[in-house]
Task: structure prediction
Amino acid sequence: MTAAAVAAVSASLIYLRSFSCSATTASTATAVSATTANTATATATATTTATTATTATARHFISASKFT
Result:
């Protein structure tokens, strides 16, 4: 191989490697974003469930205290 051919192949490999790294970074960013969204949804669901349980307990206590 000539020096020019070696340089061309090296440049191509460097380009492909940088493209691969960029794709991996984008993929990771998407995964992190999805995980963050899932965590936020789970937290909101847990908060709603806890609020509903607290409200139900309070209603039961109020109802029971009316008749005692």
User: Anything to note?
Assistant: The helical segments are 3-66. The CA atoms of residues 6 and 59 lie 79 Å apart.
